[in-house]
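User: Batch of two.

Assistant: Item 1 of 2:
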Amino acid sequence: MSEQRASTVSDPATRRLDRNALAERVAADIPNGAYVNLGIGAPTLVADHLPPGSEVILHTENGMLGMGPAPGEGQIDPDLINAGKQAVTELPGAAYFHHADSFAMMRGGHLDLCILGAFQVSEAGDLANWSTGAPDAIPAVGGAMDLAIGAKDVYVMTDLLTKTGESKLVASCTYPLTGVGCVTRVYTDRAVFDVVGGRFRVRELFGSTTLDELRSLTGLELEMIDPA
């Protein structure tokens, strides 16, 4: 069976990780030396949980390599922001470049990993993260499509369920797609899933979450990854 992480559960009543605990878990899997883009929203928290001295190089699509964690109080530089317009810091050796050059990096396969949020992820690894089709939805995919098809690996960081209780892991996406067959791993507040052979396989459970519970919540045929 996969490792069961009780010590990191931040809400024992619901057996879920909060977003900071989940960001810490994601950060632990990023290899040193990787070039990584953090998508808008919850994935930006990963920058705050990379260990000191980490050689992970963070990229922002608005034109920066070498992004650091969020600034402390009184340390905000209004000229340093990420793609979500959040204040960030720079690390020694940081570089700045034109927006078009940044997209060339994304589209040219120069990023090892991107970490994105999602509305839905299908068993085939399809990603829908830019629109639900609602009347007030933002009518543009932005850079998410470029990241989804350009990065060597795509990880998703999200809650397992929507606010109304539907699973974000689905047999097939019903929302407009961002990328086809692009997602390799999904980190949720209840478990970590790999996309393997057109199915989700459970890599790790959090707290007292069980495999049967995940099957009930998602409606999918889930199995644990064999540790061997």
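Item 2 of 2:
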Amino acid sequence: MPQLTQIGESFVGDGVNAAHINTVLGHRDGPAGVAWATALATPSAGHVPFVAVLRPSLPVKPLTLFVTKAAPADDAHGLLIWGPAQAGVAAGVADAVAEGIISEEQADTHVIIAAVWVNPGADDADAVYEHNRTSTRTALANGAASLPLTADVIAARDAPSNPFYTPKA
């Protein structure tokens, strides 16, 4: 049976310290591995993918490429990206392995791409960390479960909403 790529999404928290994570989990020898290596080798201005670590010289497994959705607006924003957001993503991946969402075998054969939003106005490092940890673990669980259900998407089509916009009725 071919290894399937799992794509997940999660939004946790509210206001400027909320986290929005998109994940791609797939085998190193498949399309996810190619995308992972290509993204690492082709940074663009303000968007420099890097390997998420639990601490220096201890990358999380599966190896996780942290890709920021927002270029650092200033030094403080950059520190929130490379500090608490990165730590949260790494811890969320480790949580997914510890909980069996990702198997220990997959930890050695798969890679993750995590697209991470840190609002330039974020101001609470602990909230950024907690929200990114929870959002990463949830996105990986959602990908493993093929969520959302198509029926839920169809049911919500007439009332879309997000933290930045809700259409008038």
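The chain is about 40% helix and 20% strand.
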